Amino acid sequence: MIRIGWLLCILYSSSALAAGEVEIPLLAETSHLQTAISRVLEFDENGKATLGQDPCNRIDLSDMKMATEDDKLSVDMAVAATTGVRVFGSCRGLTPWQGRLALKLMPQVTESGLAIEFIPTSIELSRLDNSPGILSKPVQVIADALVLPRMKTVKIDLGGPLNELDGLIEQLLGPNSTQSVEQSLVQRTHISRLQTEETGLKAWIAFQVRASDRSHKYSEPVLDADEAAQWQTLEDELDGFLTTIISVLAESTDSHVLRMELLAILLDARYAIAEALTTDDPESDPVRELFLTTWERLRPLMSELEGMDTPGLEVDYKLAAFIAGGDALRALDALGPEYGLEMTRDGLRRLARLLLAGTAPPRFTPLPLEVDEDFRDLFGFDTGKKSAPTIEVTQSLVETVSLLGTWLMPVAHAATISPAEALKGMVPQRDNLDDYLDLVASLLQEQSKKWLTENKKMPARLTERLDPLVRATAWKESCWRQFSGSTKNPQVLRSAVGAVGMMQINGRVWRKVYDLDRLVDEVDYNVNAGIDILTHYMIDYAIRRGEHEQPGGDDNLIKASYAAYNGGPGQLARYRNENTPARLRSIDNTFWSYYTSFNSGQLPDISSCYVVGR
Question: Which residues contact 426 (CB under 8 A, 6 or more apart)?
């Protein structure tokens, strides 16, 4: 039996379902069908198969090709057939027959209406020189005996996956649901028709739906304190679920591009979760919305992984089953008025087990907050780099002090204590503002220079842009502040969504990558992490996606890097999109004005951040 992820893409139907029968066209691509047939014929990783337990009478297959032809599937393979008898322990016979095997398969719906089978209508052998050859008839008999029975086992069956969806429905209805489902999905679904196309086999899934009763619609009351706490736990579960799943998918491929796209999805989801935790909207269902949005982006990458060598995910069609399960949740969302869909912890765990089998954790919370070097290495962050001790004074600092211009701090001071040490617990006040800004300028320059020394990832033409990029980002995010409050009781600067310190790094978004305590306690660690994130967005996203090839050139890389830094990888191109909300466009414009000031060697207007004058 073959289970392929496209089976359950019911979600791609109309979002407004009326009562009656809805037909949904689904496509099984020829590559998926070829993979299914290859498994039935036991093709190995080198694209070869041997059928027959008798070494004297066997068929060796290779070079499979598949296409659609009229209303059938055409399968063509190279064949080397051996016929003979065993004499004194060795095979005796003629030279193996060499040629091609052409097989025609007619797809048809089974009697149950829930499966597609493939009926062999012809099997033909041809030699390379088109001559019949002495062994053609014996080879035909062997091919009929060894190939045809296997081909009759190839099926695409909806029954099993639909039964699993019914199990998911029970989880997703929630314990307090009063909804009753009169018929299971198996009872309400059938394959209505089939059609071969150049790209594969298209099946129309007919699905019985019932219109929702809008006369009983009512507003849910606002969550009380206990319910709000449970809701936050569910958001944590979604975070843990996505982190686990995306890490497993990233580990299954060596493609850097795919890993970066997977990481972008995870980071955007974490940004959204952090934002959702601050939103008090009784009409909003952030967990459901976040799952559906994330799945929309994740699914094409998993479809790409399906066509690649993914060790550990092909056994028992784990990846296909997981895709099907996620599609099921999308499908149930389309049926939400009827089913009363809820996203539950049990539902997420059940979905995870489709992919992880016995390795699925019993729960995804509490979220692990410590640095995970394997996670850092998986997504291209230099392993061990962030575990280095606080940066000490170096001779290079003294050498660069003279280059700071108006941001100069006294050389004697610089020679005795590092900027990071001097800034510990320091809150900018009117009477220390000049010295404070000098110290921060020194720190930012020191950290930018250090990053460029330790990393050779950035194109040479952009290295001079890093320092003003870091300065402008820190100014826009925090007004160059690690701490706020009073001098006697300084408190780390913390935003409403939980971003901390001078570079306003959100520990929820960047957990497992950075030490959350050090982001709070050590300003140089905070700055270095911010530089890491900025350069990550520039190199792995802005440059790779060609933002500099848009009108504006390399300036776009600066704008895109900050947009992603401020809002997540999904915001990378917002600076040039016409439909960007005015609030975000204002943020980007303000950042760019700061960058241009720093790039010309000037501070922005200090009054934009601090009270100045008497």
Answer: 432, 436, 439, 482, 483, 490
How far, in Å, CA of 206 to CA of 113, rounded? Answer: 10
Q: How far apart, in whole angstroms, are the C-alpha atoms of residue 468 and residue 466? A: 6
Residue 436, CB half-sphere, CA atoms under 13 Å: how many? 19
- Name the more confident of 277 and 165: 277
Here the tokens at position 331 are 């499908």
pLDDT, mean of residues 370-395: 65
Q: Which amino acid is at 128?
A: L
Residue 240's region, left for phi above 0, alpha for psi from -120 to 50, else beta, is: alpha
- Residue 423 CA, chain-centre distance (Å), reads 39
Distance CA 61, CA 43 (A): 8
Output the CA torsion 365→367→368→369 (10° steps): -160
3-state secondary structure at position 209: strand
Sort strands 490-492 and 155-157 into parallel, antiparallel or unpaired: unpaired
Q: List C-alpha distances in Å: 109 to 191, 208, 533, 588.
A: 7, 18, 53, 56
Q: What is the mean pLDDT of the chain?
A: 78
| 38, 314 contact by CB (below 8 A) | no
Residue type, 121: T
Say how far apart CA 357 and CA 187 lie, in whole Å. 28
Where b means 16+ CB within 10 Å and e means fewer, 113-126 reads ebbbbbebeebebb
Q: What pLDDT does 152 receive?
A: 86
Which amino acid is located at 452 in the chain? L
DSSP three-state, residue 218: coil
Which one, of 1, 86, 10, 2, lies nearest residue 325 by Cα? Answer: 10
Distance between CA atoms of residues 446 and 455, nearest Å: 14
User: 489 exposed, middle or buried (CB, 10 Å; 0-12, 13-18, 19+)?
Assistant: exposed
Q: Give residue-wise pLDDT tens across range 94-148.
A: 677 888 888 999 999 999 888 899 999 988 888 877 665 555 677 788 778 888 8
d(C-alpha 296, C-alpha 289), whole Å: 11
Q: With contact defined as beta carbons under 8 Å apart, do 321 and 146 qualify?
A: no
Task: Provide the percentage of residues in the chain whose pLDDT is more than 70.
Answer: 68
Lookup: tokens for 143: 């091919």
**Whole-angstrom Cα distance, residue 505 to residue 509?**
8
User: Could you give the CA distance from residue 505 to residue 330 in angstroms, rounded to a whole number?
Assistant: 32
Tell me the C-alpha to C-alpha distance, in Å, between residue 531 and each of 23, 433, 538.
Answer: 52, 24, 10
Beta strands at 72-82 and 58-69: parallel, antiparallel or unpaired? antiparallel
Question: Of 236, 227, 246, which Cα lies nearest the Cα of 273?
Answer: 236
Contacts of residue 547, defined as CB under 8 A and 6 or more positions apart, other chains included, come to 556, 557, 560, 572, 573
CB 302 within 8 A of CB 319: yes
Question: Helix (H, G, I), strand (E, B), or coil: what is residue 585?
Answer: helix
Higher-confidence residue of 170 and 313: namely 170
Would you say the C-alpha torsion 546, 550, 555, 560 has a positive or negative sign? negative
Residue owning tokens 């398969």: 105
Cβ density class 334-348: b for 16+ within 10 Å, e for less? bbbbbbbbbbbbebb
DSSP 221: P
Residue with tokens 């028709």: 193
Under DSSP, the state recorded for 564 is: H
Read off the tokens for 40. Answer: 């039935």
Please count the residues of the chain: 614
